[in-house]
Design goal:
Strand content: 5-15%
Strand order of the largest sheet: 1-2
CATH architecture of the largest domain: Up-down Bundle
Number of strands: 6
Number of helices: 16
CATH class of the largest domain: Mainly Alpha
Helix content: 55-70%
Distance between the termini: 82 Å
Amino acid sequence: MKKLWEKGYELNSVVEAFTVGNDVVLDQVLIPYDCRASIAHAGMLGKIGLLTADEVEKLTETLEKIIRLYEDGKFTIRPEQEDCHTAIENYLTEELGKLGMKIHTGRSRNDQVLTALRLFYKDQLDECDKRITALIKSISAFTEKEGATEFPGYTHMRRAMPSSIAMWGQSFIDSMEDNRKALNLALELVDQSPLGTGAGYGVPLDIDREYTAKELGFARVQENPVYTQNSRGKLEITILHALSQVMLDLNKIASDLILFSMPEFGYFELPNEFCTGSSIMPQKKNPDVLELLRARYHVIIALEAQLKTQVSNLISGYHRDVQLTKEPVMKGFEIAKAGLEVAELLFGHLVVNKGKCEAALTDDILATERVYALVKQGVPFREAYKRIAKEYK
């Protein structure tokens, strides 16, 4: 089995396993993206006269076959192949002979992996956006049904002023809309094609990078070849930061619901199917799903911190260190998508106990309203404040 960097000697097996890491597993999801990029690249090589129309057609047909095999679960990466790029090129060579060897003309594995990853990131960001939309719809339906119910608002973990289900729910809708802007910023940065920049210093061919960018649906070409390599890790940090904003909201939703569904509060009730039990205490119904939702925000920010340190202190250009930026982002997407799905389900089944909400609206949380009632009568605010404050000494 030939490696793309084959030099005619055997790599030490321990070193090989260490350098490959778990790319064999991670790269499975990149197979269709790498094939798409290779189809566009083959078309470009045909356009500039380095491949015939027949060669482009054969390469395209074989790459599309790989995508179908992948979709049927019949195309996998073997450990000795290191990654999806080698597996795909090996298959092309086995099927097409010397023609398969031509596909790597005008590119490096460096810009090849960047292109596949960015196509993957674009799809994942789009999926997160769709799940945010679904969550917003779920919260909106919940607040439309229960929004008129009032319950205490809190500052310093003490009852402060009246709030409502509508006000509480809308706060997360508004924040999710801001999160969408953060994700769109990440998408804007990702949406530039690195294909054709080689190992970070261009290739000595007159290639058409605009053509491949357009074919792959990128908004623009990433012009500077050095920056394509320097941006690996930088863009991933931006993605994880945007995802951390999503998870921060889910963390707060979970924290609120854990507290307010306690019997001591009882403002919200979780359906049985969302609760787990205790192995020793038969009466327990535990909000494990909320606790895990709350905890996974910390996993996301740990992944972000990992990337921030991973890519620092490296000089310009490619370094193998950046291979380790792939997994944290993939994990981040899975965590965020799962969290959004769980939150959407929660709001679809969450129950409000109106009686307990109303019972918690004691006179003391109307103190500020009483101050402003005096203000409306012409009493200066500070004097009105002092009059009411005397009642709560």
